[in-house]
Amino acid sequence: MAFIKLACWLLLLVSIKSVAASVPLTDSTGRLSIGQWVEYVEDSTYQLSLSDVRSRLYRNRFISTHQKAPNFGFRNAAFWFRFSVRNLSRDSLWVFEQALRGMGQIEVYVIDPGGRVLPQWGGDFIYSRKQQLASAGYAFLLRVGQGKVATVYVRMVPYGGQAFFPMYLSTLFVYKQHDQLAVLLWGIYYGLLLTGFLYHLLLWMFTRQTAYAYLSLYLATYFLFEINRGLSPAQQYLWPGLRWLIQNGLNLFFTVTLLAFVNFYSYVFGFRLESKRAKISTALIAGYIICLWLLLFFVPGLSRNFIAICQFLPTAGFLVVVGFRKLRAGHIYTHFYLYSLICFIGGGVLFSINRAGILPGDDFAVHYTGNLGSILEIILMSFGVAFALRQEQRNTIYFSEKARTAFTEGRAEELNLVALRLHHEAGNNLLLLLKTIERLSPDQPISGQTIKMLYSQAFDSYSMVRNWAYSATPETLLNQGLAIALQKLIDRANQTETVSFLLLITGDEDKLPLKVQFELYYVCVELVNNIIKHAQATEASLYVCIQQNLVITECRDDGIGFIQPVGSSAGGMGLDTIRKRLTRIGGTYETHRLRDRGMKVVVQIPLSDQPILTGK
């Protein structure tokens, strides 16, 4: 029994010693973290006043934090802190500092040995009116006489749901040195973000490259997000006193930043262009980000920082998976974007677990991991975009030369075909016309039947030459693509006023490999010529569509028609030319007689084996 009493007395003495322990302030004290001397009471009602916490009811409810930087994770509550200081130095003016911003209201009460209460106020909601010192955090002057002991009560109300309180005591000189260093570092960081935004914006204005536009948008939104944390210049200078923006600005701009973040990475990874499923996945991630932000307005008591982490981690994980998929698929320069993403995520994760209280500490490496990760991300993103666009320019030059080579070869082949037609068809007509004229005698009158025959032969020759003229390879095919070239082909065909043509295209024809564009254009020329010359049709249509990895071209007319057996080598020069051109690109064609009148030709060209050489 005596042993139990002795133990109880020892515990009581220890507790009294811990409560009575004061922060020693000496001449050698620099910037002292006071978390281990601080006791706290959590006020979830936000109603406790100074007289309440000094009353007998709450006097013994204060709990020691036992942390260098008190961190209670994600909480929505007000916190009262109590500590005492013993001034053993020659300096009577000290500074109390709460180093982390995001506090709506801070009340500091210094109680001197005579019981007099000296109040001070600060925080983002009343910053411009009451706080005595401008600071990277929140700073308050403490006047403690030499050899005196003072008790300090501090009430803090965080508005982001983040209960993290790195508190320091220092002399005014040491405080100013540290504060100037913090302002310098944050100023450099803000300057880097703003410079990166302006630089890439100028690059977009001069190059009109979409990647630069999306990167500029991301950096602009990220800059707006960052000025709402850190030094919080937005709360101090842009919208001081606007409580809604002060309280919700950080989450608002973080949500917008995440949307721009997803937009940029899904574009540079080429994920949105993969399939309809990829577009839906991207839209779902964006919807998830927005819905979590809206929860803050419909579910009271949610921690804003916790919601931000829930937005960030799944989104980042989704993009990492996409990045690794693209890297394994061999996409050039994906590693730049993937490494930048990993740097940003790594900094964000370390920063988040520190704020959640899992990784304690308030030193430079932990406090600025998010900033360091962001800087590395921006550098790697810039390299990735620059190298990717440089490679794209090289490919453009290479493909342009290849396109011109293909154009020259196609032009030469078309000229050979025109020469053969001139020899076989137009030459034959002109020879008949010449022989008919030779049989005429200048002494004999020319009959009307002879004149009609001569006119018919001359008109046939003229029609042939005119048809070949508009079917020759236009410059439009090389400069403006297949869709416009086909439209002009049909326009010229309609000028013959013999057959009325209708063209149906999707607009995606210009994305086909250049070789396919050239050969398909010539195939359409042959189909149109055959209808004009042989079908005796009044109406015809040409339809081109792209279905996944297959190009389907369908040509219909209401003429007399004929059947060309599949795989047969029979037929005239036009069908033989079509067969040869399709063989070069792995295509096939079929002919079908329509039930009422006319015929249909269906051309199919697979794209899976074609070289990737697209664009105008």
TrEMBL record:
It comes from the Bacteria. Residues 519-608 form the Histidine kinase/HSP90-like ATPase domain. This is histidine kinase. The keyword Signal applies. One of its GO terms (biological process) is phosphorelay signal transduction system. It is an enzyme of class 2 (transferase). Its EC number is 2.7.13.3. SUPFAM superfamilies: ATPase domain of HSP90 chaperone/DNA topoisomerase II/histidine kinase (SSF55874). The keyword Kinase applies. It catalyses: ATP + protein L-histidine = ADP + protein N-phospho-L-histidine. Keywords: Kinase, Membrane, Signal, Transferase, Transmembrane, Transmembrane helix, Two-component regulatory system. InterPro entries: 7TMR_DISM_rcpt_extracell_dom1 (IPR011623), 7TMR_DISM_rcpt_extracell_dom2 (IPR011622), HATPase_C_sf (IPR036890), HATPase_dom (IPR003594), Sensor_HK_TwoCompSys (IPR050482). It holds the Pfam family HATPase_c. Residues 1-20 form the signal peptide. PANTHER family: NITRATE/NITRITE SENSOR PROTEIN NARX-RELATED (PTHR24421), NITRATE_NITRITE SENSOR PROTEIN NARQ (PTHR24421:SF10). The chain crosses the membrane at residues 183-204, 211-229, 249-268, 280-299, 305-324, 336-353, 365-389. Residues 35-170, 184-386 form the 7TM-DISM receptor extracellular domain. One of its GO terms (molecular function) is protein histidine kinase activity. It comes from Spirosoma taeanense.
